[in-house]
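Put briefly, the fold is written as integer tokens. One such record reads:
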Amino acid sequence: MAGNVFGNPVTDEVVKELYPGKEVTRKLKAEVAFEFINSGGKDVDAKNFVYGLKDKYGNGISAKCMIYNATGDTVTYSGKKDWHGHIYESPYPAKIQNGQWGAFLHVHPSWFAGSESAIIYRGFNGDGQLCDWMQSWGIPYVGNNHAYTEIREGHHYETDHWDYIKSLLESQSTKYEDTWNGCQSNVTIGEGTSPEFVGIMSLEGVTTK
């Protein structure tokens, strides 16, 4: 397991033990993963990790990012867009299995600017179609923080939509959710100059069940 991914994955075997005789679908695995979002203290482990990075980094604008996979399958890191700032020390998690947290710290550049970035993770909807979850945050040098997310077809963000997405991000407040093609994404960001950013990737209906 990578050093910045936390928790035991929710696999077919785990779901079969919980629901013997029931068909194991992505939706069911996603639902179990969401039920287990805090199991075994994995949420605390992710938080301690990113807070440790922040302590090491020191003062300055930063986003303490924690993202959770409740999609029913593994998601794979597929790109990012930095408008302002860069990741600090620990890389973006390459893969996050179903039922795991990933954590990382994004920090502002050395000049007078905030942290503003987006990440993309690729996975599947309940029918096995390839989808990209895009989650983004903005912590301006002056002004209020923002969070924005959307889901599109696989490889969508290999085309440059970033000016448009930046304008959408900067028009939002601290909470946003999107549902598309059977997928769900929820993001929140706190106030202040080094807030927590929390993103949950899931399937439609999982987080509201």
